[in-house]
Design brief:
heterodimer, A: 4-stranded antiparallel sheet, B: 2 helices
């Protein structure tokens, strides 16, 4: 896999990319390198000089409270920039870590500046990707505040499926779900025991099964109903941006 | 209308004493990273990311959390690892509170509990909750 393959797939689902724009992205990104599972790539308080693209694997953005309780505020999949916002926000208010072994490529902020000045359409697409990140935050906020754990879990599963399908990483109704139940608990803001109970409930209703690292959705329509999942927030339409 | 909420964390059937630790004492960490690792260590046997107890230095034991909600019993076949009973107690109480938040608003009477056991069938800790909403208006009974 080339460093930009999933990123370009994702962008091309939403707009047309010229050959030159693809080349600019490819040449701005570093050579891919491996990062072990559960490594911090960026820590809270850091001032990164480059942004990280996930080429392979799952990563998260998170915050840890003094009590040790952790909240995962975003899950990132291949093709996602995890800290594009660091380019302009400068000082990181949260950490970015791998959930699984990852392959990443980085883009220096100098080059991002150059892209924003010379390739406005590409700059808008990168802007779009941070906007979609915030849409996802908004949707997660609604879920944390107003959905039951069962609805929230159903929502996360629907969202991950759609985001992975977008980059061609689903196989039929199945996708790789390589996170632990504890990590899911930190994502939903609930205990691992409750995660387990909710998963068993969804399984009992014939909606999903999760075996090993494979999650299968058996009835997407009903799962969407449980979650009240409407993918509008993922901005999936193909149109000029 | 009043609501009567009783919540108790009992010792279960075994005679093992629960240590009385200050709340969250086991969770205090000076370093963000240490806290992150503690969470890695509370792992399920389901998809593992390959990290575990070696990072905390503490001896971990596996506990199984069987949930009773009304007539439904959901046994825990996998279990979770914890460093001490205080952490187990907090997990059980937290899970029970979360179950309550999700399902009590639409009921008028419910009993739910979580039995925690090690690898035997004998629970070592029980967190339980009974819930009643009484209609004192004398009108049509609540359902």
């Amino acid at each position: 896999v080339s460093a930009t393959e999933f990123l370009i797939r994702k962008l091309e689902e939403r707009d047309v990319l010229s050959a030159e724009e693809k080349e600019v992205l490819a040449s701005a990104l570093s050579r891919p390198r491996s990062v072990k599972a559960d490594e911090d790539m960026v820590r809270e308080g850091d001032r990164p000089s480059e942004s990280i693209l996930i080429v392979d694997g799952f990563a998260s953005r998170y915050k840890v409270l003094q009590s040790g309780r952790r909240q995962i505020t975003a899950i990132h999949v291949p093709g996602d920039f995890v800290d594009l916002h660091g380019f302009l926000l400068k000082k990181m208010d949260h950490a970015v870590g791998t959930l699984t072994p990852c392959t990443i490529a980085t883009i220096p902020h100098e080059k991002l500046r150059d892209i924003t000045e010379r390739y406005p359409h590409l700059a808008r697409l990168l802007w779009l990707s941070t906007l979609v990140d915030s849409s996802i935050h908004r949707e997660w906020l609604v879920a944390m505040g107003r959905r039951s754990a069962r609805e929230h879990m159903a929502h996360i599963v629907c969202e991950l499926f759609v985001r992975l399908e977008l980059v061609g990483l689903t196989q039929g109704d199945t996708f790789q779900m390589p996170v632990t139940q504890a990590e899911l608990g930190d994502t939903l803001g609930i205990s691992t025991v409750h995660v387990n109970r909710v998963l068993q409930e969804l399984r009992g209703e014939g909606l999903i099964t999760w075996r090993g690292e494979k999650l299968t959705i058996h009835d997407f329509e009903r799962l969407k109903e449980v979650a009240e999942f409407d993918p509008t927030y993922l901005s999936l339409s193909h149109e000029p941006r | 209308m009043t609501s009567v909420l009783g919540c108790g964390i009992g010792r279960g059937l075994a005679s093992r004493d629960l240590p009385k630790l200050p709340v969250a004492a086991h969770r205090r960490h000076d370093e963000v990273r240490a806290a992150h690792y503690r969470y890695d260590a509370i792992m399920n046997t389901l998809p593992s990311s390959g990290v575990g107890e070696h990072r905390t230095g503490a001896a971990m034991a596996r506990y199984f959390f069987d949930v009773r909600d009304g007539d439904r019993v959901i046994a825990d076949p996998d279990g979770l690892e914890f460093a001490d009973l205080a952490a187990v107690r907090e997990e059980a109480a937290t899970a029970l509170a979360e179950m309550a938040r999700d399902s009590l608003p639409t009921t008028t009477r419910r009993r739910m509990s979580i039995d925690v056991r090690t690898d035997t069938d004998v629970p070592i800790l029980r967190a339980s909750l009974s819930f009643d909403v009484e209609d004192l208006s004398g009108g049509e009974p609540l359902t």
